[in-house]
Amino acid sequence: MVQQQSCDVVAITETRSWSSALGGYKLFRKDRKGRRGGGVALYISAAFDAVGIETNDNDEYLWDNCPPGLVDGIRGQNGAPVIQEEAVRELLSCVNVCKSTGPAGIHPRVMKELADELVKLLSIIYQQSWLTGEVPGDWKLANVTPIHKKGGKGDTGYRPVSLTSVPGRVMEQFILSIITQNLQDGQGLRPSQHGFRRGRSCLTNLVSFYDQVTRLVDAGRAVDVVYLDFSKAFGTVSHSTLLD
After folding, report:
1. Where is the signal peptide, in residue numbers (predicted)?
2. Coil, helix or strand for 166?
3. Ordered DSSP codes for 47-68
4. Cα(223)–Cα(216) distance, rounded to whole angstroms?
5. How far is the C-alpha of 5 from the C-alpha of 44, rounded, in Å?
6. 129-144 confidence digits (pLDDT tens)
7. Buried b (16+ CB within 10 A) or exposed e, 141-152
8. Claim: this prediction has a pTM higher than 0.90
9. Would you list the DSSP string of 177-213?
10. d(Cα 71, Cα 79) in Å, to the nearest integer?
């Protein structure tokens, strides 16, 4: 049944025999060999290569750093990523129909329901936008809503939330994926960074920190911790410096 479906990855809970082979697959397992059952067999299609990772006993290397599969691995001569129609279709199918329409007045449900009709045109626009560095003017428009943060009711007590058009938001997902992938490949984002990363949180940061501290304490080493915070970091950073 597995071979008929041409599955790339197959995981089987072994309940009877540990001696199991499947043609065309590489077998990885975690069980009690020589006994009946008690483990899991993981079959990977032979078409894939197994890549070993040296962790040096550092659990940080085990974090999942695979970027979302939004951009095809093929790149042109100028190194520009190729935005595939299937990737656009996948994002359109995940559009939240409860979100705002934005200044374009196109409801997210329309984009989602007409994904098959829009995917080719949007993929061309996204690709050209990336290659030329130009963004359609309508995508730069936004409905700005002031949201109160804290303190007084003056202008400084509010932060703006921009509601942009749906096609522009989809394009943002591609840009985010491309930038994230390049940062990870170039070690611009270290494995120890947990803030503003998919699948990471304060909890994962604390777990990692706790693990490192307990290892040092168990080894009889002193541990000193310094916490730093920047007041109003997002509101005081120079925009011109970021753009340069």
Report:
1. none
2. helix
3. TSPP-----TT-GGGGS--PPP
4. 7
5. 14
6. 988 888 899 888 999 9
7. beeeeeeeeeee
8. no
9. HHHHHHHHHTTSS-TT--TT-TT--HHHHHHHHHHHH
10. 13
